[in-house]
């Protein structure tokens, strides 16, 4: 059951003093997130997009302790459970507020989502769980593309609140600008941008040679503080230690051999709720077959591909930046023809398997949102 706690006994003691009586203690942050996997899972499994997004919100908040504390009046209330609110258009064309109890099991949450939203639709009533759970508010304007929403602070609703509009298609992915409003007594900006809000635990980075896989992995490590594993280093460790008879030139055999190891590392990381970037060219295009849904929903796949125009116009730059992160001992086999063939191969395979790829075209840009 919810209970009042003393602010001085929590990590929010100073924030409570500073913000509990402030005229406007709400903070709003904006972030554009990649929802490609949510869109694809929804279409494949015939699940509602907003249900999946509400689930992801609950899943992200589940492990952030600040989401279980809420300022109510001048009190600080501790909750044991959370719920995610959604707005329902009822059968009369009006709207009702509907709180969905959060469950980390997707099937259970989906079942509750359908049950509670149908009840609000059919009976034209609100479902209020705020006496039992800390409720995360949401509002979706599904037919309009918006860049953000800032709500007026009323002094009554202190709950964290997320808003979004219609998702957008950008090249081979879907993106969604999201507004996140929260009471400064409850959390700080560092909690709002926490790694817990990242869409995926595991990031797979692959692509043709010299496309900047290691550079991207290093950039994501610095930005998101995700550790990364180089499959190339794993390969050489196994070869040089005599654990395999394969050589660095046995690409096809190495892909099978290394993937058997890497896929189990991924499963272990997901089960332990550990973030990890895995980078290298030994990731098979049918990698999804190695995982069931509970793992797939935590994996982001990125394939870097350079266009023919970019390779032709910038080949000297590509070679010049080859050692920006790692020192290549022998690069004599890397020619314009080789680069064109390999990048075309990776692009065609991504299209064949329905995989996301970042096409580097006129200028080198590989910004990735996790």
The largest sheet is:
7 strands, mixed
**How many β strands by DSSP?**
15
Instruction: Give the count of helical stretches.
Output: 11
Taking the alpha carbons of the first and last residues, their distance comes to: 35 Å
Helical fraction equals 25-40%
The low-confidence parts are none
- What overall geometry do the principal axes of the alpha carbons give? elongated
Order of helical and strand elements: EHEHHEEEEHEEEEHEHEHHEHEHHE
Mean pLDDT: 88
Strand content: 15-25%
Rg estimate, integer Å: 24 Å
Strand-pairing-aware structural class: alpha/beta
Structural features, described:
This protein is an alpha/beta fold and 370 residues long. Helices cover 35% and strands 23% of the residues. Strands 2, 5, 6, 7, 8, 9 and 10 form a seven-stranded mixed β-sheet that branches. Helix 10 crosses helix 11. The longest helix is centred in the C-terminal third of the chain and has 21 residues, at 251-271. The protein is elongated. It starts with a strand and ends in a 10-residue tail after the last strand.
Quick summary:
With 370 residues, the chain is an alpha/beta fold. Helices cover 35% and strands 23% of the residues.
How does the SSE layout of this entry go?
Layout: E1 3-5, H1 13-19, E2 26-34, H2 36-45, H3 49-62, E3 69-72, E4 75-78, E5 82-89, E6 95-101, H4 106-123, E7 134-140, E8 161-164, E9 168-170, E10 173-183, H5 189-192, E11 202-207, H6 213-224, E12 228-230, H7 231-240, H8 251-271, E13 276-279, H9 293-296, E14 299-306, H10 308-320, H11 336-353, E15 357-360
Parallel strand pairs: 5-7, 7-8, 11-13, 11-14, 12-13, 14-15
Antiparallel strand pairs: 1-4, 2-10, 3-4, 5-6, 8-10, 9-10
Helix pairs in contact: 10-11
């Amino acid at each position: 059951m919810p209970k009042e706690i003393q602010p001085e006994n929590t990590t929010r003691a100073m924030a409570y003093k500073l913000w509990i009586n402030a005229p406007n203690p709400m903070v709003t942050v904006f972030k554009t997130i990649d929802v490609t996997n949510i869109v694809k899972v929804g279409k494949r499994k015939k699940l509602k997009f907003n249900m999946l997004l509400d689930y992801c919100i609950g899943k992200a908040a589940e492990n952030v302790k600040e989401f279980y504390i809420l300022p109510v009046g001048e009190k600080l209330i501790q909750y044991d459970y959370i719920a995610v609110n959604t707005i329902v258009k009822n059968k009369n064309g009006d709207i009702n507020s509907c709180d969905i109890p959060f469950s980390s099991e997707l099937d259970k949450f989906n079942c509750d989502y359908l049950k509670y939203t149908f009840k609000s639709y059919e009976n034209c009533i609100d479902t209020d769980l705020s006496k039992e759970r800390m409720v995360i508010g949401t509002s979706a304007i599904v037919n309009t593309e918006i860049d953000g929403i800032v709500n007026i602070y009323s002094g009554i609703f202190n709950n964290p609140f997320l808003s979004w509009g219609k998702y957008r298609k950008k090249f081979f992915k879907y993106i969604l600008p999201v507004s996140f409003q929260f009471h400064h007594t409850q959390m700080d900006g560092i909690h709002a941008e926490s790694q817990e809000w990242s869409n995926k635990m595991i990031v797979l980075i692959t692509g043709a040679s010299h496309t900047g896989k290691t550079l991207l992995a290093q950039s994501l490590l610095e930005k998101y503080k995700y550790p990364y594993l180089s499959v190339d280093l794993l390969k050489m460790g196994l070869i040089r230690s005599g654990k395999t008879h394969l050589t660095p030139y046995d690409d096809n055999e190495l892909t099978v051999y290394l993937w058997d190891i890497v896929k189990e590392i991924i499963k272990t990381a997901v089960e332990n709720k550990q973030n990890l970037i895995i980078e290298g060219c030994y990731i098979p295009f049918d990698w999804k077959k190695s995982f069931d849904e509970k793992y797939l929903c935590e994996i982001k796949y990125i394939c870097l591909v350079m266009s023919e125009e970019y390779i032709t116009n910038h080949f000297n730059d590509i070679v010049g930046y080859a050692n920006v992160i790692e020192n290549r001992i022998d690069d004599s086999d890397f020619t314009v023809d080789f680069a064109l063939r390999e990048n075309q191969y990776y692009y065609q395979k991504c299209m064949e398997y329905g995989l996301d790829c970042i096409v580097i075209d006129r200028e080198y840009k590989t910004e990735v949102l996790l």
